[in-house]
Amino acid sequence: MAGGSILEDKLRAWLSVRSIVRGLPAPVADHGGYRVDTNSDAEARRWVFSRPTAGLSSLGVTVQQPRHFLKLCGSADDLRGILPDRWQIQPPGYFMQAGEPLAERSVPKGYTVAIDRTGDIAHVRIMSADDHLAASGYAVQTRDAFIYDRIVTAPEHRRKGLGAAVMTALRRARHIPGTPELLVATTDGRALYASMGWRTLSPYSTAVLPVA
User: Fold this and answer.
1) DSSP letters of 154-169?
2) Domain locations in the chain?
3) Which candidate, 136, 154, 151, 206, places its Cα nearest to that of 181?
4) pLDDT digits (tens, 9 = 90+) for 36-60
5) CATH among 3.30.1540.10, 3.40.50.1820, 2.60.40.10, 3.40.630.30 for 112-179
6) Dihedral of the CA atoms 153, 155, 160, 164 (nearest 10)?
7) Do 122 and 21 meet the contact criterion of CB atoms below 8 Å apart?
8) Exposed (0-12), middle (13-18) or buried (19+): which is 148, by Cβ within 10 Å?
9) Which residues of the chain have pLDDT under 70?
């Protein structure tokens, strides 16, 4: 799918780097989108598309097995409209890109931050005063993109700025200027990233066949 749109190029870059940080096979072009053979207990395979295509519609008809996911840079209505009713639409996501960075967010008093690096992967952990994991996240830099992944704050530690502190710590691992900073956010995460100057490139919708 070379020579695609800017959105498609960013989606391909994000998906490729996500495979690195999660230890998954690299995505391959398939049915006008990209396929990742995840082969986990929760997910056997996913296809990701930058736009509705005939290939996406065809997969909706031909794929019969559970634990197969179809993902689209588009609204839930866009995805629902081209799939048979047996597909279940999941909660919405948002494909996002960082804007100009705002002031760095420091770790609140009473918390400590640790950064581990394994090859190109950075892993940030913020620990509470009683030595429990309060927040964490991952990031990877390639020549095509810098992506953030699995930014999580424990429920009892939310609304203290820990998510923003994780993002700040991870961003220090970025060493190739000019590469886009990308992630896919939940609805709650979108509000955090928007407050940090991120913008939504596209809704990111998911459909799955339920396990019988």
Assistant:
1) -GGG-SSSHHHHHHHH
2) 6-95+203-208, 112-179
3) 151
4) 999 998 899 999 999 999 999 999 9
5) 3.40.630.30
6) 20
7) no
8) buried
9) 1-4, 102-103
Mode of pairing for the β-strands spanning 45-49 and 93-97: unpaired
**What is the value of pTM for the model shown?**
0.92
Tokens standing for 114? 């640790």
pLDDT tens for residues 183-198? 999 999 999 899 899 9
Backbone angles phi, psi at 177, to 5 degrees: -60, 150
The residue whose two tokens read 């939940």 is: 186
Q: CA 3, CA 143: separation in Å to the nearest integer? A: 17
Structure tokens at 137: 């996240």
- For the four alpha carbons of 5, 6, 11 and 14, in that order, the dihedral sign comes to positive
